[in-house]
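hey all, quick one before standup. I had two proteins in the batch that finished overnight and I want to keep them in one place so we stop losing track of which output belongs to which input. First protein below, input sequence then structure tokens straight from the run.
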Amino acid sequence: MAIYEPERVWWNPLSKDERIWVALALIWMLVSFIFMPIYHLVGAQNPPAETYAVSAGDFDKLVEGMVEKYKVGEENGIPVVRPSADEPVYIRASMWQWYPIVELEKGKTYRLNLSSMDIQHGFSLQPININLMVFPGYDYV
């Protein structure tokens, strides 16, 4: 409770300028609210991702098959692979690591397939600014 209570109606009604700014803010908010989902469908931003349902065991077999075929070395017990640009590249996320280490050739286009074995993982590919959340049970291409 205040030392001195304000008068019963202590505020002043909105002036013409204030009403205009409130109306502009409301209109802009509504335009933005409508524009965001529409731009998601028709805009020129990166698409969310192409995804397929996959079991962890099946995806793990694809990763291990790629490792056997394209292994060129090993770093701290993790295989290093140099895959062909003509074939899909499988990368597995598990707690605290991405598997295997992948060496890609500059100037070539690759199809990366990402999946998680345990929990949700974040994946970022720079400088093209691709950011994905990789969930278990899905193959993100």
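OK second protein, same deal, sequence then tokens:
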Amino acid sequence: MGVVLVAGATSALGQQVVQRLLAQGYQVRSLVPNLSQGQEILGGEADLIVADVTQPDTLTSKTLGSIDAIVYCPNVALLSAGINAHSPTAFFDVQNLAQAAALVLSQPGENTLFDFTYPSANLKELWGAVDDVVMGGVSQSEMRLSDSSALFVGNVSTANSGGFASIRTRNFSSAIALGNYQGIKLRVKGDGNRYKFLLRTEEKWDGVAYSHSFDTVSDQWINIEIPFSALVPVFRAKTVPNDGPLDPNRICSCQFMLSKFEYDGALNPQFTPGPFQLEIASVKAYGGPTLPQFVLLSVATSPQLQSDSTSLSQDEERVRSSGIPHTIIRLHQSTEITGDRSQETANPKDIAELCVQVLAQPEACNRTFEKAVN
């Protein structure tokens, strides 16, 4: 479902947003003032990032990793206190986040499946080695997590009729639906060998997989785009065309492999036995719809809500001018509705639900919604 950064995650509204994002299957990174407070308030499901949004030097790509969207949650209690959330301090918060977004946001239409630039215990637990020892070979491999990438490393040997090494995920807790995307985008740095990337649409451990081979350039980062239509159904390196094309709405697991074989007995033209290393920064889906990537919850600037530009707060204007696909949810007290304008009031749970909903709605891009808070 992608990676979402929540700023203001420890506020009452932020907590609701984090909970709903996790329930929808998003990978969540929560900005917190300090680790102990974040753990006490949010628990252990979301990744916690200690950073200060008023200090732009703490909002770096190394700190935040690669993300698909940002949700900015102000303290809704500011409404009842009569304090504008578009105060100079809040404005700089949003400005700093928008500037950081230029460094860390995925391209519009991308969905991050694995971000190895931000290593976590979950990544380590999800991936494991599957080598030719299962067939009597002696190759060995592993995944190592560094500060900024994953390393698929090992030694591949053709002894004992072997010749492949791989790392593979466990079956996902629920199948990932990628039908709105065109394919998979890899960010890798290799060693000149030709590798395979495989997706599986069934939960069998030794079943049919959909494979695509890709070449690497020694010690050079490259982007590899693999259209879903280019993935070939295979079983133990033999093609099985009768299985039909990949169903991108049922992705159960994925795998990286180095093998001496290509398909149907043909040899890999770019294969060297011995030590190998493939460095992986990310695995993303690409070619999807443009979705909101910055959801700003803004407190209305005036008790008389106007539609003209003079009533718009600086933080809203900062997000609009950033060029980032965005949604603005403007919050105000229910008592501020005047004249013949009427709206249903919403509690923090309703607002949090709206935040999560707009992240999946292309039609919410570059729109402003108003919500009265009770």
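Flagging for whoever picks this up: The CA atoms of residues 148 and 257 lie 21 Å apart. DSSP finds eight helices and 21 strands in the chain.
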